[in-house]
Structures are given as C-alpha cells and as structure tokens.
TrEMBL record:
Domain DNA-directed RNA polymerase RpoA/D/Rpb3-type: start-end pairs: 84-380
Localization per Swiss-Prot or TrEMBL: Nucleus
Pfam families linked to this entry: RNA_pol_A_bac (PF01000), RNA_pol_L (PF01193)
Origin superkingdom: Eukaryota
Source organism of this protein record: Brassica rapa subsp. trilocularis
Gene3D superfamilies, per database record: DNA-directed RNA polymerase, insert domain, RNA polymerase, RBP11-like subunit
Protein name as catalogued: DNA-directed RNA polymerases I and III subunit RPAC1
Similarity annotation: Belongs to the archaeal Rpo3/eukaryotic RPB3 RNA polymerase subunit family.
Length: 382
C-alpha cells in the first residue's frame, strides 16, 4: 500500500539528484551543442539548437536568458591599425554576428561623391564612366560632422563637400596620369555658375551669381576643418590618362549616405567573420607522422616537440591560424588522429576600412546603430 511518505518522495524525486548521474549534457551532446566538426567529406552539427526544450530530456534548459548573455558576452580586440581591425566576439549567436556584419557594410554612413558636373572632357573616358570612377574615391571626412542632403534641401556647408578637377596635358608632352591628388577642395562651395535660361534684368545685374551650392560660410572657417583640410583618403588613385591636348574640367559634390543606397558609401572594403577554429589531437602523433602532419599544414598550425631520446611529438601551436582546409585529415594515416572543430559562439571579425573612417570608429558607430535598432524594437513591442 502506498503511504503518504511514498507519495511525497515520488513528487519530489529528481533523477539528476542521484550521485551516480552526471550533471548537464553528456559529452557527445555538449560537443554537438557548442562545436561544428569538420569531417573529410563535410561539416556536421552546423545547425544551432535555438529551441529552449532541445535538451529537456537531459534536464538542461536551452532558453536564452539575459543574465547569461551578460556573463558570457565579451569583445576582445586583437589588433587595430589605421585601416584594419581584428577582434573576437564571444558569447553570441551566428545571427547576431551576421547582423553586425551587415550593419558594418550597409548602414554605417560615410561621405562619397554623388554628383559630378563635367564642364569639359576630351579624354578617352566617357562622362558616365569618369563620373562613376570619381564616385568610388574614398573621402577622408568624418560623416558625423555633416547632415544628410534630402530632396528638399539646398547644398550647403553642412551637407556638401565640393571638389574641383581641372587638368590639361600640354601638346608635345608625354601622356599625363590624372591622380586623386589633383582633386582640389573648394571650402567656399561650387564655382560653376547656374544657367539662368534667359536675359538678366537690371535689378539682378548686381546680385551675386548663382552656383550649384549655397554656402553661407567657408568650410575652412569652421573649427573642425580649420586645421584638417578635406582630401581624398588616398592621393595616388588613378582617375584617367590624358594624351597631349586632352583636358578634363569638372566639379565633384560629395554628400552623406549609407552603403544600403550605393556601395560607394560603404565605409569598409570588406567586413567578415569566421568561427574560432579548434584543432584537437585525438592521440599521440609521433616521429614520422608528426613530421608529416607539420609539413602538410599550409598555415603552420602544428609544431614539433622534442621528447628526448630521438623521439618527436606533434603539438597544436597556432590553432587560430587554421583555415579548415582539411589538408591534415586527407592523409589516411592522420584522419583518425586530428579533429577539426569550430566554436559556434566565438567569432573572429575582421574590418578593412576604405580609409574614410578609422576601423575603431566604424566599429563604434555600428554598435550605436545596432543599439538604436534594439531600442526601436523594444519601443514597438511595449
């Protein structure tokens, strides 16, 4: 007969409380949850288990919790130069990593040439191609100091940067290379006059001629540009080649925009990520096999350790360098000794700036944009 004590015991019984039952996931499920394993033919366990009850049979709650994110998430900056930045994002899902990559490419604003006014062009490059080439030249100007130019706005010192290009190859001289160092910044705005389309009345004869911009002051009088003139990021980019007698005269107007509108506004040459590689030796790789393993790896991931008495052993020296090329597991004698894995929640990011903004600034601005997106979602749901 079932007693009251038996009922209470059955109600409170939890198999995980027994001393001989291991806590958490068993090793094979733990590996499946946190690693992608690269086999000789294909990678396995590539999908993320995002369902909260994925491992409920093992007594593990797989739901996303904010406090766990606070504890696990971190960013480690590995290197940062004027043009490149490498950092690790740890404790996030691939969806968040990809969202951040897309923001870096398409939503961080920069300054780029949008309008090219060509007064004279006798070069071999047609006007449309010349304008396209000039539009892709990165401009060393902080977009945070400028406003967006809308359809209803007049180009002014707060939303437009004007450059002038006037180059002529004299007759009897060799061919002339036109480089970006020929682009001259016009801090007072456009110098090209607008066509009035008719006779000018006497009342307007003494008025200031209208140009394609309406600057109220010179940009070099502003404190942010007084000691920092605006130039193309690189002064040695080839724009065109002129033969003797050929000439180019134009104005280029740069405005603020984002890469989602056109790639010329993308502040990065590329922004990409990969999961952190993990190289595990499943057994001792010694002597001839060790030398073969070191030799077959093109990224110098492995090294030789001298064990004395003429014995050698392979070790994993630089696992971060692994590109998962699988050369080491194509050898039939080594395939069962090496395991290539990728950590699912650890991403190595690389930002390569076009030079319009430093990579650390691009990173900071991308974080602000992602934060703003999250705040808008919370506001819409509340």
């Amino acid at each position: 007969m079932v007693t009251e004590e038996d009922k209470i015991f059955a109600k409170n019984f939890n198999i995980d409380d027994l001393s001989d039952v291991p806590a958490g996931l068993p090793p094979h499920l733990k590996l499946k949850q946190n690693r992608v394993v690269s086999k000789k033919d294909a990678s396995v366990d590539t999908a993320d288990a995002i369902y909260s009850g994925s491992y409920v049979s093992s007594g593990v709650d797989n739901s996303v919790k904010l406090e766990n994110f606070y504890e696990d998430f971190k960013v480690d900056v590995i290197s940062c130069t004027e043009t490149d930045m490498e950092f690790d994002m740890i404790g996030i899902d691939a969806a968040f990593a990809n969202a951040f990559r897309r923001i870096l490419i398409a939503e961080v604003p920069s300054m780029a040439i949008e309008k090219v006014l060509i007064a004279y062009n006798t070069s071999l490059i047609v006007d449309e191609v010349l304008a396209h080439r000039i539009g892709l030249i990165p401009i060393a100007a902080d977009p945070r100091l400028f406003e967006y130019l809308t359809e209803n706005d007049q180009p002014n010192e707060k939303n437009t940067i004007v450059f002038k290009l006037h180059v002529k190859c004299p007759k009897g001289q060799p061919r002339l290379q036109v480089l970006t160092n020929e682009l001259q910044w016009l801090p007072n705005g456009s110098e090209f006059l607008k066509e009035t389309g008719g006779s000018t009345s006497n009342s307007n004869s003494n008025s200031k001629p209208k140009t394609y911009t309406s600057f109220s002051c010179s940009q070099d009088s502003l404190p942010e540009f007084a000691d920092n003139p605006i130039t193309p990021t690189y002064l040695d980019i080839l724009i065109a080649k002129l033969s003797p007698g050929q000439e180019i005269e134009l104005e280029a107007h740069a405005v603020k925009g984002i890469g989602k509108t056109h790639a010329k506004w993308s502040p990065v040459g590329t922004a990409w990520y990969r999961m952190l590689p993990e190289v595990v030796l499943l057994g001792e790789v010694e002597d001839e096999k060790a030398e073969r393993l070191v030799k077959v790896c093109p990224q110098n991931v492995f090294d030789i350790e001298d064990m004395g008495n003429g014995r050698k052993r392979a070790t994993v020296a630089q696992p971060r360098n692994c590109t998962l090329c699988k050369e080491c597991i194509r050898d039939h004698d080594l395939v069962d000794l090496v395991d290539l894995r990728s950590v699912k929640n650890h991403f190595i990011f690389k930002i390569e700036s076009t030079g319009s903004l430093p990579p650390d600034v691009i990173f900071t601005e991308a974080v602000k944009i992602l934060e703003d997106k999250c705040e808008r979602v919370i506001a819409d749901l509340s």
